[in-house]
Every structure is written in structure tokens, then in C-alpha cells.
Structures
1.
Amino acid sequence: MARVAAVVSNGCNPDPRVLREARWLADIGHEVTIHAFDRLENLPAETFIDGVKIVRHSVGYTEYGGTWSTVRGLAKFRKSVIEAIDDIDLIHCHDADTLDVGLKVANRIAKKGKTTIPILFDMHDLHHTWVLMPNPKSLFRRLFAGIYRRKMLRQASKVSAITTSSEGFQSWLAEYDLESVVVQNRPKKRDHLPVAKKFTVGYLGRVREVESFRLLLDAVRIIPDDERPALLIAGDGNAAVKVANMVRKAESEGWLNAEVIGAFISEQLSEMMSEISVMFAMYPPHRGNIMEGAIPVKMFDAASFGRPSVVNSDCHMGDVCEDEGLGVTSLWGDAQELADSLIKAHGTSVSLNSDEQGEKDRFLALVSNLL
């Protein structure tokens, strides 16, 4: 069986896609080590989950977001991972900011006179759009987004194979003559939770943008007092503190009932799903990746428990939501429509009819061909 090194630039605490694909490989006998980035220096140095070893690299406190501190921290992380990886049979690069690691490790092994190892690039997202999050209109940030995009395309042309998380991203890559295999972020089927009686809107995942929560608060405030939902927001990220402060301000004004939690582990997901009736998964479309095909993991996770989601309309995620009956779509920026959509979704149940099995088979077939 093969020795696989996976690389991801977050703490993998958790990263459902990274862990899911690593587990698939470990289940058929491969030896898998995930090299993750302990940006905030608050995670265990090593963890074993489902037969997968997670090694977390700590190179100094590194903020999330597109700052110079982030750029320097990522460079140190990549250097640390390159030095840590020894003889392997496959390197699995999760997102564009880890491609440097894959290419340099493969080049080093080749120079030792050994067989060239395959590089699998897993494009979760359009990584170059992340630098736009703090200020999408900034000419400076647009310049750097363009530089990162060109670098990613250049490096992606050198890998052995590419997987991506949606048909939209597959089409985007095809525009640059890059072939890819779609492996969606679908979880296992789970036992459905009973339909929730209490109206609670949840957001469970990375908190990267303030705009989404500003829209959510505006919509919730429109809903009459006797119908207004509570909120449950869980997750870390570069906007987590700002969002928490916004929510607490609304609580102090007396019109909102909310609970804000920081980072959580996968074992807590079921309990939090039981507390919500609707998953909120809307994102500002000006960031780029939303209109190009992003599909939120939380929509699939919620559906696996029977919970409906409210997502952006007029984009790929909205099409998937409507085609598979996973919830309700809403126009970005329209607080009244979002309020109506949340009310419509509450008290309903959905089913995830297509789970991870097809994605697993497609992924393992690709890896088998590489090895």
C-alpha cells in the first residue's frame, strides 16, 4: 500500500473534505499523514482520527485573512512541511496555497534518483479570490488576486491530476485547458433528526465574511417578535470576532436571542444540528468563487441530518439546492426575501439522496490510476 502525504493550510480541526478523503485512503490500507497548519497555535501537535495521522505545524501565530502576516506565515508553514516529508508515494495538495509543497517535494525526490511521485491537486475553491474578502473593490487586492490566479494555473499545469469540489469549478478549469474530476463534499447518510419545533437559524463553519451576517441580522430583525428565530453561530475564521460583536450588540439591544461558539470538532456537529431548524449558507457573490460554482459543505451536511438550508439564488449552489430539494434559495442583498425564505424553510425536512459513496468511488479510482 502507498504512503500518502496530504497538505492543508488550516488546522484540520476539522476540515471535513480533507479528513473524508484521507479516511477513504486509510480504509483501503494506505498510510496517510495530513500536514496541517496550526495558525493560532492552540491545537494538538499530533492527532489520530480514523486511522489517519494529523501532524500540525506551528511556525508562529498567523492570522487568517489576506495580510502580510498571513503571507509570511504560510511561507514558513510550507517550508516546515517540505522539510518534514520524507519518502512518500503520493502527495495530495489541498488548495492552491499548498502546490509549492507538492512540486518541491516531488522535485527533491526525483533528484534523489527515485521514481517521480504523482501530485494530486484538490481544488476546494478558487483560492485566489480569498485575498479579495476584506475589500473586493481594492485595486491592490485585485492585482494580487490576479498574480495568485496565474501562479495557480501555472503550477496546476504541472500536477498529475486535479480534483475539484463542483461542476462549476470543473468548467472554470476547463476554460484554461485543465482537466479535472469532480468530487463533491457529500457526507455519509445519517439518521434524520426529528423536524425542529423551535425556530433556530444556524451557521456552522468558517466565519470569513461580515457581509453574510449583516444580511442575516437585517432579515431576522424584519421577522415579527413572536416569530423571530434564535441564532446559533459556530466556527472560527478571520471575521469571527467582528461577527460575534455584531451579534452581541443585537442581543444587548434586546431584539435577538443568539448563541455564538468558536471552533468546534466534528463530534459536536450532530448535537448542534439538533438545535437548529434551518442552516444559513449565503455568501457575497462579488467574491468571485460564488458565481463560479462554489457549493457550501454545510448545505450537504445539514441535508444529511434532514435540515433544510437557505442559499444564494441564481448560481450553481442555488441550482443544486433546488434540483435536489435541499432547501430554499434567496436573492443576495434582499433582507425581506431572506426573511421569507427562512420562515419557509423552518419546520420542513429534506433528504440527501446522493451521499458520499459515488464521490468516494470516483476519488479512489483516480488515486488507483495515479499509483
2.
Amino acid sequence: MNLIKGRLAIFSFSLSTTAPLVLASLHESILVTLPTVLLTLPLALIVYAYVSTYWGPNGLFYYTKVVSIRLGSVQLYSWLLSYFLYIIYTVDYVDYMVLKLPDAVANALTLVLPILFSMLVMTGLSYLALLALSIAQILLALPMPQLGWVESIAIVSLTPHYLFTNILSSSLLIVCITLIPYVDGYVHLSKYVLYTFALSSALMIIGSFFKASLLVNQLTSLGYVGLIMTEYTALYNLLYHSLRVKRSKLILPVLVTLLDAVSLINYNKFYNITIVPSVAALYLTLLISLSVSWIYLNRSSFFHNRKGITRIAYLVLSIIASLLMIYGIYTVLVQSSGLTLYEAIAALIIPIALGFMMPLR
């Protein structure tokens, strides 16, 4: 991959992690979107700092295991659980809930899409697909009347509790920017993280003053497809380029396709029972990765030749980002009940138990 292709591949992969078209179409009040950007900025700055020191397929596992092998293992197990499930249930979400296709068409797509994604990832063509998806999302996110966008200032309740919960909930939408470290990148291109965050945040803020048409809302499926592709690519990179799993590379796509086929029995129920453990595990893996960030950066060369205030600033950023993930875990637990509550608890406990009993190096 030459430098030009490398730059395009890295930027399109990075941009796809934030699903910019989805963010642009949220149409949340500026009283929500602006604080959301400020609250998620620490997340972007930590990812930027991470890839400024090392950028390879190990992803967040690399940074965490430098601090602690056992914590790194917990992070790895919870990450694998979260994103494996995410890849599967998001296919259902796109087919049935975003596009709202007739069941016959949605059923067929649910079987075809995992096979298509697997082929693109395994052949390395996923980066080209992500480039096309990124360009399409940016063009569709521009509030042009030709696409059905209309001027409309989003209104929100000024109740402090409502504002607070809306801001925190919206902030958790950008957590997938933490997928950026899972691609083979160039350290000197680490600012792509900040460019990605700035562009996606700007589109989300602009979306506070424009309302998307039905067509654009349906085409947000491109953003979710882009997310699936980045997650699948990241998972593939971690398993086969970083951990160097020796088993057949066909095992992963076969599992993904089979489970998506199982979801056809009852896609609503399947979606509900898979999303909860996935999200719980996601917040756990990110809590670990973000809470140890200052320790890792302190041991790396990141703070060299930087002012002392930078070291203090990153300690504060680590605390803010960690608190956001704790809030995420809290919301999952309080909003779950019955089976899903047991699933959420299991998704938190099992990776911790495995990480300490079966640490990976």
C-alpha cells in the first residue's frame, strides 16, 4: 500500500468509525450537540495520543497490556465479545429498522450482506469500500435542498435532567472512534483522528439547524454499513494480523453468517438479546483502555518535548473519558431487566474472570 493509497485508506477507515451521516441526521438541539462535542473531545484526544506512539492492528490491546497484562486481557476479551456481536446484530438493524424493507427482501439481505462483508474484508477490498462509503456519507450529510434537507432548528426541553441525559447519551454515539487504532497506520498521520472528529462533530452541529428528509434518513444505513465494515476489518486485523490466530480464516465469516441466519427466526428478539451484552462489554473494554491511558502515555515518548501542562491535561482527559464509560455501564444496567440484565452482568463478569485466569501476552 503506497503512501497515497495509505492516506486514503486510513482516513476513510477513520471517518467511517464515526458514521458522519448518522450524526448529521440526529437533529438534536445545539444545547445538546455542542456539549456533546466538548464531552467526547477527551476520547478523540486520547485516541490521537495513542496512535501518536504506536499504530498497528493490536489496537487498544497493545496500549493496555503495556500497563498490565491482566487488564489488557480483560480489555481484549470484552472487546472481542462486544464487536463480534455488534457486527451480527447491526445487519438486522439496518435491514429491518433503518431501511424497513419488506420481510422477504430484508431476510435475503440478512443472508447476503454478511457474506459480502466477509469477502471484502478477507480480500482487503474493505478499505476501498469504506472510501466510497465515506465520500457518499459526506455528500449526503451536506444540507442541500436537492436532497430534501430543510431548515429546522431542533428544540429540546430545557429541563436540566433532560439536557444532562441527552448530552450523555449522545456522547456515547461517538465511542466507535476508538476503532481507529486497529488499522495499520502511520504515526505521523495521527492527526487524522482529530480531522475525523472535527469533521463529524461539525456535521452533527450543523444538523441542529437542518432536518434530514426521509430519503436521507434511510440512507443513514450507509453509515451503519460503514461501521460494520470498520468493526469487521478491525476484528479481522486483531485476530489474524496481531494475535496471529492459526485456525482457518473462514471460521469468523462462517460464524457471522450462521448467526445472522439464526436471527431470521425472530430478528426483534435476536436484536434485543444481543445488543445488551455487546454494549455492556463495549463500555467495559473502553473503561479499561481509557482509564490506563495516562499511565501508558507517561511510560511512552508522548510527553517528551511537551510542556508539563500536557501531562496534567491528559490526566484530566482520562478521568473524564472514564467517567463517561462508567455512565454507559450504569445506563445499560438500569435500563435492563430480566434476561437482558443477566446478560449485561455476564458480559461484564466473564471477560474479567477470563482476563485474570487466562491472561494473554
